[in-house]
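re the bet — no i am not wrong, look at it urself. input seq straight from the record:
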Amino acid sequence: MAAMIAQELEAKQGFTYQVEDGVALLVLDLPGEAVNTLSPETGEVFASLLTRAEKDPAVKAVVFISGKKDSFVAGAKIDFLQTLKSAAEATAASRQGQQGFDRLEAFSKPVVAAIHGACLGGGLEWALACDYRIATDSPKTTLGLPEVQLGLIPGAGGTQRLPALIGVQAALDLILTGKNVKPSKAKKLGLVDEVVPAPILRTLAVRRARELAEGLKVERPRGQGLKAVAQQGKKGLGGLLLGLTNKEMWTEVALEDNPVGRKILFDQARKQLRKKTRGKYPAPEKALEAIRVGVESGRAAGLEAEARFFGELVVSDVSKRLVEIFFATTALKKENGTASADVKPREVKKVGVLGGGLMGGGIAYVSSALQGVPVRVKDKDDAGVGRALKQVQGLYDERVKKRSLTWREAASKMALVTGGTGYEGFKSVDVVIEAVFEDLALKHRIMGEVELVTREDCIFASNTSSIPITELAKGSRRPAQVIGMHYFSPVNKMPLLEIITHKGTADWVTATCVEVGKKQGKTVIVVNDGPGFYTSRILAPYMNEAAHLLADGADIAELDKALVEFGFPVGPITLLDEVGIDVAQKVGPIMETAFGKRMAAPRALEKVVADGRLGRKNKKGFYTYDGKKKEVDPTVYELLPHGKNRKSLDAREMAERCALQMVNEAVRCLGEGILRSARDGDVGAIFGLGFPPFLGGPFRYADSLGPAELLRRLEHFQDKYGERFTPAPSLVDMVKAGKTFYPR
C-alpha cells in the first residue's frame, strides 16, 4: 500500500525513476505545466526518491534531469508563495527548502544536475546543492537567481551556496540584480562544470555521475568566478555593481578573504544599492545582508538570516505588488487581445516597415532578431534607408560584442533585413508597420500607396502615438485591417507594445498583431481607440504638470529629483529632453483639441521651443550634452517665466501633482472604455512609462491610497490649481459605491 501511495505521489509531481548502468535517473516533468516549478510537494517526492536511490545497492550515483523540452526548473511555484499569510509561515517554508537541499548536498552518492532550459531561482538552488552541473549550449538554457525582481531573495540556500561556489563579488552581481547568465558565462564563473550540446546531455551526465562514483577526477572550473569578475572590467560583474576599475577589482579579489576587505566590499555594495533603489526595494539589501552574515559568521547563521529575511519579504507590500505584475504579464502572454479565445492569429512570414528613422530601424531589428522573419524597409531616400540598415547592423554588432550572438548568427539575422526607396518586396508582406512623421494626410497618402502594392489580406499597422486609428482607417480601402501598433523608444529595449483597435478592426487582425508583438519579445496590451490611446494620453497631463511647475518657478534638477524619489526611473524634464521638446510640442495641441482646457499645455515652454532647443537629439535642451557631466543648462531659465528667480517648492507636492495627474487620467481611460481592465492599465503604465513597479501601477496605487483618499487629494489640488485636477467621473462614482479597482 505504501509503495502504491508513493508511486501515485511521484506521478502527480511528474517524477520518473529508472536505473541505467548503476546510475539512478530522476526525471522531472510536471504534468499539465509548460515548465517545471518547485513546491514543497515536489521537494518531498524528490527526497523520497533520493532515499530510494540511497538504499539501492545497485545505484552508485544519481542524475537529476528535466523531462521538459526547454525547461529545467524555472523556480518556485509563485502560487504557493501567495498562500503564505505570515512572515513566520514564509520563514518556515524557507527553512524547509534549505533543509531539503542541505540533505541533497550531504547525500552519500554523487548527484549530477543535467541542465537544459531555464534553471532559475529555486531551480538553480536545487542544482547548486548537487555535486556536478552540466548545462547545454542551447540559447534556451539560462541560469540565474531572479528573486529580487519579485521583491524576494533566494530562500533555499542560494545566498550561501552561490558565493561559496563562484566568489562573493560574482554572486553579488547575480543575486542583487536578478539577471540571468548564458551557459558560456556560467562556465567561466564556475557556476556549471561543463557545457555540452543538448543531444548528448543525458548520456554525458550519466557518464560523469559514474566517473564521480568511481572516484575518477573530473575537471571542475572552481575558483574561476573571482578571476572572471576581475577580467570583466568596469562594466563587468563586480564592476557593474560596485563601479570599480579593473585594478581596483583585483584588489577587491585579494581582500575578499580579509575581514577589513570584506567590510569595504559590503559597505561599497550597500552604498551603491541605496543609490539605485533609493530604499524603495528592500530585497537587494536583505540579500546583501544575508550574504554578509554567511561570509562573516558561517553558513548556519547565513541560512538563518536568509530564512528570516525571506519570510519578511514574502508578506511585504513591495513583493505583493511585484508578484501581481508578474501574474498580470503572465496572463497577458496567454491572451489573443480579443473577446474570444477561439480567434486564431494568421501566420506572418514577412514584415514591411515604412520609415527608416529610429523607430523604423528598431522595429526592423526586433522583427528580424526576435520574430525571425524577413523585413523590408522603405524610406523616401537612400540616406533614410541607409540610416535604418546602419541602426539595425549596430544593434547586431553590439550583441556580438557582448557575446550574446556569434558573428555568423548576427550576419544570418542581418541578412533578413533589406531596404529601398520603392515598394519592391512589399507584394509578399503580411503586415506593414508604418513609422513615419505624425501627419494624418501623409499617413493617408502612404496607406493608399501600400494598398495598391500589397495583398488583399495585408494588415496596415500604424506606430502613431497620438492620431486616432479611427481617423486613419477612414483613408483605407480595407479599414478592418487597419490597427495601431505603438512601440516605445528605444524599440530594442522598451518592453511594451500598445495595440490600438478601432470599432471596425477585425478580430483576426488584432490576434495576429498581438502574436507578432509577443514574438518580438514585447509585453502586449490591447486598448480601444481614442486621442492619445492610453499611454500617450496619461503621459500628457503628467508632463503638462511638470511644465506648470516650471512656470511656478520650480528648480529643474529639484523637480526631476522629486519624481525619481517618488519612484520613476527619470524625472519629467529629463524625459522631455530624451523624447524631444519639439515632439511634445506637437502632441500638445492634439490633446487640447480632444480634451479641452484641462489638457492645455502651459505657455511656459514656448520660448524654449522658439530657441531651437529640441533636447538630446540636437544636444540643446534643459540639460547640457557637451560630453561632460550632464547638468542643467543655466541659460534655459532665461526662457522660463520666472527667469533666474527660482523657488524652492515642496518636493513631495511636486511629485504628487505630477503622479496624480497620471493616475487620474488612467481612471478616466478605464471609465471611458479606452482600457479593457485595470490590470492592462497598470501593465501599460509600468512597462511603457516607468510608473514605479513597487507601487503596482496607477490602479494598484489608487487602491493602496483608497479611492476616497485619491478623490480627496484631487479635489484639494482642484481647489488650488483649477480644472486640470478635476477628478474622473468614474472615480467619484466608485467612491459613492464604496468600490475599489481590484477585488478586495
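see?? The longest strand covers residues 15-20. told u. also The chain has a mean pLDDT of 91. so pay up
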